[in-house]
Amino acid sequence: MKALVLSGGAGTRLRPITHTSAKQLVPVANKPVLFYGLEAIAEAGITDVGIIVGDTAPEIREAVGDGSALGIDVTYIPQDEPRGLAHAVLIARDFLGDDDFVMYLGDNFIVGGISGLVEEFRSERPEAQILLTKVPNPTAFGVAELDDEGRVASLEEKPKEPKSDLALVGVYLFTPAVHEAVRAIEPSWRGELEITHAIQWLIDKQHDVRSTTISGYWKDTGNVTDMLEVNRSVLETLKPSTEGTVDESSEIIGRVRIEPGARVTSSRIVGPVIIGADSVISDSYVGPFTSVSEGCRIEDSEIEYSIVLRGASISGVRRVEASLIGRDVEVTPAPRNPSAHRLVLGDHSKVQISS
After folding, report:
1. Closest CA to 74 of 53, 55, 48
2. How far apart are the first and last CA of the chain?
3. Where does residue 14 rank: exposed (0-12), middle (13-18), buried (19+ CB within 10 A)?
């Protein structure tokens, strides 16, 4: 069995971060979100992995390499521009051959991995198996309708009037039957080849399409709010350790990981928090659910529930919350405005100025 990982999207909802960085490489608890998916694939016993890449291919290649550090063997498959999930299957035909495969969206995060799902698929081997979860806003997702026996009856991509609240999670399992489906469908109104259309084609042709509804944690990390929420979820499982240095005037509370070379002086850190290698925290407060990447500097500031990327600095700022701060960013206080009023008043005006 092989894996096909999609890592070519533009990440428009994470701009401006994704103007200069692949969305799949934005770190969660100081590890790229893409790596969580690749590790889940390896844990499921799948080592032959194809990664669909686009404009950010050089960055993805540099981060993942040949995959050996993650226990996988990677083949890169270029896509000229995002043309839909089914198009990704189409261009990966030579890589996939006649093997069964799991397709995994590289910016998705699933607690607990996919080992159970892969084992179930290998045992039962339907033509397709999809993962579903209940969501409060189904119009933003592909939506599945199940029949009375719980089988997949129909699928619709981002419907205006959803038939259910069951959204497709970014993990799909297929036999080679899907290759005929992706060749048979036409582009949608968005100009893309939709995987939901390909799966619907399989359903219409009486192929065995099954679903698994998960109740665990899943997020599409395509926007800042969800990225921070995933960061919070991962940090809740953090194992505390101190490999850097903490001076006697600092206070460390709860689950805090301080990586090698990091220095904490005259500061208070309340976990769960991770401080990256060679970062410096001085005269500051770092609050719960904060990830500080490597080589950062936080001085005389307060921050919590945030992600700080490599090389950023925050100095003299009170207070930063629910923020995603990019690489090599500098955050400092704004200049103080003079405490005076400049007035141009017409005749007979009446003006009240608070002291």
Report:
1. 48
2. 73
3. buried
Q: Evaluate whether 163 touches 145 at the Cβ level (below 8 Å).
A: yes
Give yes or no for a contact between 274 and 289, defined as CB atoms under 8 angstroms apart: no
Amino acid at 121: F
Which residues share a beta bridge with 56?
Answer: none
Q: Which residue is listed with tokens 């799948």?
A: 46
Q: Can you list the residues of the chain whose pLDDT is less than 70?
A: 8-22, 215-222, 337-339, 355
Q: Which domains does the chain have, with CATH numbers?
A: 2-223 (3.90.550.10), 238-331 (2.160.10.10)
What the block records as the tokens of 348 is 């007979």
Q: Which pairs with CB-CB distance under 8 Å and at least 24 residues apart come from 236-241?
A: 236/272, 238/29, 238/271, 238/272, 238/274, 240/271
Q: What does the pLDDT look like over 122-145, one tens digit per residue?
A: 998 999 998 888 888 888 778 888
Q: What is the DSSP letter of 187?
A: -
d(CA 246, CA 176): 55
Whether 218 and 109 have beta carbons less than 8 Å apart is answered as yes
- Both tokens assigned to 14: 């994470």
Q: For residue 231, what is the enclosing H or E element? A: helix 224-235
**Tokens 């800042």 — which residue?**
224
Report the alpha-carbon distance of residue 85 to residue 105 in Å, rounded: 9
Is 106 exposed, middle or buried, given 0-12, 13-18 or 19+ CB atoms closer than 10 A?
A: buried
Pairwise CA distance, residues 274 & 224, whole Å: 19
SS3 82: coil
In angstroms and rounded to an integer, the radius of gyration of the C-alpha atoms of the chain is 24
Measured CA to CA, the distance from residue 244 to residue 248 in angstroms comes to 13
CA distance linking residue 110 with residue 114, whole number of Å: 8
Q: Estimate the share of the chain in helix, then strand, then coil, as percent rounded to the nearest 5.
A: 25, 30, 45
- Is 326 within 8 Å of 296 (Cβ atoms)? no
Distance between CA 227 and CA 229 in Å, rounded?
5
pLDDT of residue 218: 61
The crossing angle, in degrees rounded to 10, of helices 177-184 and 195-204 is 110
